[in-house]
């Protein structure tokens, strides 16, 4: 069992020190190591004056939604002085993921990596690296030995930034994203959204020297982001400290072509051992518009009587005061409704000019799915206010990214081009600005599962919803009962 003590820790940055919320006094937090099929027990003890909860981002949590972590969705927060034991099994997953606080903005400092190794004796489906390095983007050093291959487990734990990652003078071979293997491909630049993880192999094929590593922002939210490029250095053993560093030239912030090229290169490994189980028949055909909007707000001083909101199908999700999963399990009425719309209220037409239906309604609505039903979900970005890239994260599932395009989704012609053979499988996907993505998944995990934009500012504005998946009738097809120490609201 691991102990995660949530404590204040003072950090010094730019000569002033200020206390931040941390796990065990570390920032970023410790990496959690497990093997495929392990049961993981983490006792979280809250010793700060804020409510907390921890989410194991990308862990499927089969039937164990109680351990998923989003506050007010699967659990009430752990209040100051309380503790909660997260208990889950890592079923059929291996790779890199991340854990982070899942309440308000706390994940800015409360986050760390998750490394799931294959079962003992099971090799990777690519050549074993000499060394593995967990890289939580945002400042690090990498010592290299010439001739060896390294595996970097890249984790984007940023609140609001989709990042390009590059190492001067070196090619990166992508082998895994979001704890699923992909067909290896070589690239100069990796694109990685908040909440996403990417494993790359890099051969130390230069003889010596120092090479700049850069993580620079892709357009994402133009509001309130820090546009600095985070840099680090790869330094070969034996390099003189006086040696010059080879610079990287990171892609410009609007390098959509670079982003598209990377995204379109991702394919599931789809090998005999790791087949891609893409649902071929669809039970629920959903079309969600995702984006920002504007609501009238006569009492608002700023914004000339209006306020920025965000929504899915023009619904701004309102956080409940009791966790949805509890309300569902104990049949509490009045906490949520199951009328989340399968389509937007108006036919959506993205023409490059803002549509007129900006206003949203507010509600705690979920979309209900029968056990084991299959879902195709097209998410269309509305890009009403400005270019917006929305990294959408679905809890409780991996999904297949079967299609992607710019402009309006065409329900007649676009599905013909879907990749239903080896689409990449992941848990977080960028909906391109002014474009769409299509995903498919099987609702084989009973419970209540949050789906939201992983740009924290958009989540706060309401770009979120939840799926409710019913229990199945067979053995092992029901949500397990809640643990005795489940926090109360
Ligand atoms: Cu990584 Cu719901 O979040």
TrEMBL record:
<dbReference type="InterPro" id="IPR011706">
    <property type="entry name" value="Cu-oxidase_C"/>
</dbReference>
<dbReference type="InterPro" id="IPR017761">
    <property type="entry name" value="Laccase"/>
</dbReference>
<dbReference type="Pfam" id="PF07731">
    <property type="entry name" value="Cu-oxidase_2"/>
</dbReference>
<feature type="domain" description="Plastocyanin-like">
    <location>
        <begin position="339"/>
        <end position="472"/>
    </location>
</feature>
<keyword id="KW-0479">Metal-binding</keyword>
<dbReference type="InterPro" id="IPR034288">
    <property type="entry name" value="CuRO_1_LCC"/>
</dbReference>
<dbReference type="InterPro" id="IPR002355">
    <property type="entry name" value="Cu_oxidase_Cu_BS"/>
</dbReference>
<dbReference type="Pfam" id="PF07732">
    <property type="entry name" value="Cu-oxidase_3"/>
</dbReference>
<comment type="similarity">
    <text>Belongs to the multicopper oxidase family.</text>
</comment>
<dbReference type="InterPro" id="IPR008972">
    <property type="entry name" value="Cupredoxin"/>
</dbReference>
<keyword id="KW-0439">Lignin degradation</keyword>
<comment type="function">
    <text>Lignin degradation and detoxification of lignin-derived products.</text>
</comment>
<keyword id="KW-0964">Secreted</keyword>
<dbReference type="InterPro" id="IPR011707">
    <property type="entry name" value="Cu-oxidase-like_N"/>
</dbReference>
<protein>
    <recommendedName>
        <fullName>Laccase</fullName>
        <ecNumber>1.10.3.2</ecNumber>
    </recommendedName>
</protein>
<keyword id="KW-0052">Apoplast</keyword>
<keyword id="KW-0186">Copper</keyword>
<dbReference type="GO" id="GO:0052716">
    <property type="term" value="F:hydroquinone:oxygen oxidoreductase activity"/>
</dbReference>
<dbReference type="InterPro" id="IPR034289">
    <property type="entry name" value="CuRO_3_LCC"/>
</dbReference>
<keyword id="KW-0677">Repeat</keyword>
<dbReference type="GO" id="GO:0048046">
    <property type="term" value="C:apoplast"/>
</dbReference>
<keyword id="KW-0325">Glycoprotein</keyword>
<dbReference type="GO" id="GO:0046274">
    <property type="term" value="P:lignin catabolic process"/>
</dbReference>
<dbReference type="InterPro" id="IPR001117">
    <property type="entry name" value="Cu-oxidase_2nd"/>
</dbReference>
<dbReference type="InterPro" id="IPR045087">
    <property type="entry name" value="Cu-oxidase_fam"/>
</dbReference>
<dbReference type="InterPro" id="IPR033138">
    <property type="entry name" value="Cu_oxidase_CS"/>
</dbReference>
<dbReference type="Pfam" id="PF00394">
    <property type="entry name" value="Cu-oxidase"/>
</dbReference>
<dbReference type="GO" id="GO:0005507">
    <property type="term" value="F:copper ion binding"/>
</dbReference>
<feature type="domain" description="Plastocyanin-like">
    <location>
        <begin position="7"/>
        <end position="119"/>
    </location>
</feature>
<feature type="domain" description="Plastocyanin-like">
    <location>
        <begin position="140"/>
        <end position="238"/>
    </location>
</feature>
<keyword id="KW-0560">Oxidoreductase</keyword>
């Amino acid at each position: 069992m691991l102990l995660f003590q949530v404590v204040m820790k003072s950090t010094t940055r730019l000569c002033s020190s200020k206390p931040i919320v941390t796990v065990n006094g570390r920032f970023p937090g410790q990496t959690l190591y497990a093997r495929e099929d392990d049961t993981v027990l983490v006792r979280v003890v809250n010793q700060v004056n804020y409510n907390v909860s921890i989410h194991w981002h990308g862990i499927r949590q089969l039937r164990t939604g109680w351990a998923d972590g989003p506050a007010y969705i699967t659990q009430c927060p752990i209040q100051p002085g309380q503790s909660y034991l997260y208990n889950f099994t890592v079923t059929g997953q291996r790779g890199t993921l991340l854990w982070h606080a899942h309440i308000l903005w706390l994940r800015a400092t409360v986050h760390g990596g998750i490394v799931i190794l294959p079962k003992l004796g099971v090799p990777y489906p690519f050549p074993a690296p000499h060394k593995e390095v967990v890289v939580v983007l945002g400042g690090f050093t990498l010592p290299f030995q010439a001739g060896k291959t390294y595996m970097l487990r890249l984790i984007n734990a940023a609140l609001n930034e989709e990042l390009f990652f590059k190492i001067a003078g070196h090619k990166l071979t992508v082998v895994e994203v979001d704890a699923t293997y992909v067909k290896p491909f070589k690239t100069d630049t990796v694109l990685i959204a908040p909440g996403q993880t990417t494993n790359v192999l890099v051969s130390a094929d230069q003889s010596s020297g120092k090479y700049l590593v850069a993580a620079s922002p892709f357009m994402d939210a133009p509001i309130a982001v820090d546009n600095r490029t985070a840099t680090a250095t790869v330094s070969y053993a034996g390099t003189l400290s006086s040696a010059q560093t080879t610079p990287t030239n990171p892609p410009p912030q609007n390098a959509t072509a670079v982003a598209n090229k990377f995204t379109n290169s991702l394919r599931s490994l789809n090998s005999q051992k790791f087949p891609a189980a893409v649902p071929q028949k669809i039970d629920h055909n959903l079309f969600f518009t995702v984006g920002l909007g504007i609501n009238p707000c006569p009492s608002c001083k700023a914004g000339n009587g209006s306020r920025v909101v965000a929504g899915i199908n023009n619904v701004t999700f309102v956080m409940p005061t009791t966790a949805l999963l509890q309300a569902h399990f104990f049949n509490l009425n009045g906490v949520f409704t199951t009328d989340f719309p399968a389509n937007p209220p108006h036919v959506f037409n993205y023409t490059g000019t803002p549509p007129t239906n900006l206003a949203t309604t507010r509600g705690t609505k979920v979309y209900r799915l029968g056990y084991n039903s299959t879902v195709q979900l097209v998410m269309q970005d509305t890009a009403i206010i400005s270019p917006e890239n929305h990294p959408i994260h679905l809890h409780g599932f991996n999904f297949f990214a079967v299609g992607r395009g710019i402009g309006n989704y065409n329900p007649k012609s676009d599905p013909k081009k879907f990749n239903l053979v080896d689409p990449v499988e992941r848990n977080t996907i960028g909906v391109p600005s002014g474009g769409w993505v299509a995903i498919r998944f099987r609702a084989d995990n009973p419970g209540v599962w949050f789906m939201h934009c992983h740009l924290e500012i958009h989540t706060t504005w309401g770009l979120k919803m939840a799926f409710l998946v019913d229990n199945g009738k067979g053995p092992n097809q029901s949500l397990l009962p809640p643990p005795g120490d489940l926090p109360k609201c």
